[in-house]
Write a structure and sequence with these properties.
alpha/beta; Peroxisomal Thiolase, Chain A, domain 1; two-stranded antiparallel ribbon; 11 strands; 35% helix
């Protein structure tokens, strides 16, 4: 038995992820919104969608703030109230949480949630600097540490405490690239071998090039409504039955433990409790693999295995697309790409496809319950959502 539906997803949209030259972020958001509207012909967006919550991390990339109003305009939703949410890489996971709360409050019957980021026109140095704004300024940024460095600290701590290996981290990359080949909207549709992953250049030891997610452009969105109204718009709704959200210190140096992300663990516990589910009930999951070690830690924080066994989980094939708990069937941030503001609802988009049998070559057979796990920064914010086939 699962918990009752909180809200229902009646449609979803995703732009192509990649290096989208000549397009603004607002245009990518319009592409995602158009797909969502086209998928749901019974819904008249101008008359029906009553609010927009859009995740967007940084003004610096396009020298553009005020993303809520801009996105509403280009999605053809004016004059609805539109709000930007910012929580680093968890920005649209938080937008989704806001949309859930807005519908549950009774204030709106139908809302759109989504996210967007345009990053690739900037240099790697600029993107690294802008992303680093999600870490602690006086005690981390100021001293030159970047996110590869912060996650490398987590990786070395995990290796020291549990014996996790570079090979196990590389196996996450190989798995996710294999899944990304099956996803026509993924940024990098290219298989890699374990040898390629292990021999790629070091970014911040033990993390190498193929341990790190891609700088990407993209947008994503969902349309949410009250469960009792869902069948008015679609015959195949997906219900959100659990929602969790937690925060931790922004600085890694303040944490008691480097081998777990407590915000992710607590958000997962909240979502499982609300959904009346256990980790054993999850048929497919999208987790935040900004770096390969982050996926391994996510396995443990979400109780797919006990602490320290995350590396073994991927090594034994349990999280492969044909395994017991397929994880990151989309290719994950690692292969699909990581346009930071769009990632949370892009994860939800993949779960929506899986639970409506629309994932094509990467379809998980008989998937009934899914989970998405979205992390901001080095774990200062996390959201977890649990979904059930309608």
């Amino acid at each position: 038995m699962t918990g009752k539906p909180l809200v229902s997803i009646v449609s979803a949209g995703l732009s192509k992820f990649g290096k989208m030259q000549g397009l603004y972020g607002r245009e990518l958001f319009a592409q995602a919104a158009k797909e969502a509207f086209d998928r749901c012909p019974n819904l008249d967006p101008k008359k029906t969608v009553k609010a927009l919550f859009v995740g967007h991390m940084g003004e610096s990339y396009e020298h553009q703030g005020h993303t809520g109003a801009a996105s509403a305009n280009w999605a053809g939703l004016l004059p609805v109230p539109a709000m930007r949410t910012e929580a680093a890489c968890a920005s649209s996971g938080v937008a989704l949480r806001c949309g859930v709360l807005a519908v549950l409050s009774g204030l709106y019957d139908v809302v759109m949630v989504g996210g967007v980021e345009k990053m690739t026109h900037r240099s790697t140095a600029e993107v690294t600097e802008f992303l680093a704004m999600a870490s602690d300024f006086p005690f981390e940024q100021w001293h030159g540490i970047t996110f590869p460095g912060l996650y490398a600290l987590m990786a070395t701590a995990h290796m020291h405490k549990y014996g996790t290996t570079e090979e196990q981290m590389a196996m996450v990359a190989v798995k996710n690239h294999g899944n990304g080949v099956l996803n026509p909207k993924a940024h990098m549709q290219k298989e890699i071998t374990l040898e390629q992953a292990l021999s790629s250049r070091v970014i911040a030891w033990p993390l190498k090039l193929f341990d790190c997610s891609l700088i990407t452009d993209g947008a994503s969105c969902l349309i949410l409504t009250k469960p009792e109204l869902a069948n008015k718009f679609t015959d195949t709704p997906v219900h959100i039955i659990g929602s969790g959200h937690a925060c931790d210190t922004i600085g890694l140096y303040e944490r008691k433990e480097l081998t777990t992300l407590n915000a992710g663990k607590l958000a997962g516990q909240e979502a499982y409790k609300m959904a009346k589910t256990t980790p054993n009930d999850i048929d497919v999951a999208e987790v935040h693999d900004c770096f390969t070690i982050a996926e391994i830690i996510a396995y443990e924080d979400l109780n797919f295995c006990k602490p320290g066994d995350g590396g073994k989980l991927v090594e034994e094939g349990i999280t492969h697309i044909k395994g017991e708990i397929p994880v990151n069937t989309s290719g994950g941030l690692k292969s699909k790409g990581h346009p930071v503001g769009a990632t949370g609802t892009a994860q939800a988009y993949e779960i929506y496809l899986q639970l409506t049998d629309q994932a094509e070559k990467r379809q998980v057979e008989d998937a009934e319950i899914g989970l998405s796990h979205n992390v901001g920064g080095s774990g200062a914010t996390a959201t977890v959502h649990i979904y059930k086939r309608g």
